[in-house]
Design goal:
The protein is α+β, with helices and mostly antiparallel strands. The chain has one domain (3-75). Helices cover 19% and strands 28% of the residues. It has helices at residues 57-68, 72-75, and strands at 3-7, 16-20, 25-31, 36-42. A four-stranded antiparallel beta sheet has the order 1-2-3-4, covered by helices on one side.
């Protein structure tokens, strides 16, 4: 079952909303105020990956975000606030 949470991956200076999880593939999606990134890993023959997203897709996503946030267009991420309750 997929779980949603906010986290701060290693090397990140802000909390990032994220979603992860599945059985035959593993994905991790997260964003800052100016960048959305998704890492998806798995086999192309439908074998079970046997690794959770936190151990497979999250490291790929984290390394990408570390590199991407070095570029000026993505460097200045703003804090995210939840929308007002209705």
């Amino acid at each position: 079952m997929a779980r949603e949470r906010a986290l701060a991956p290693a090397g990140s200076s802000c909390l990032l909303p994220a979603r992860r999880g599945l059985l035959t593939t593993a994905g991790f999606a997260g964003f800052t105020s100016n960048l959305l990134a998704i890492a998806w890993v798995g086999y192309d023959d439908d074998r079970e990956l046997k690794l959770p997203g936190a151990d497979s897709a999250l490291p790929v996503w984290t390394e990408f975000m570390k590199l991407a946030t070095q570029y000026p267009a993505y460097r200045d991420a703003k804090p995210l606030s939840p929308p007002p309750a209705s």
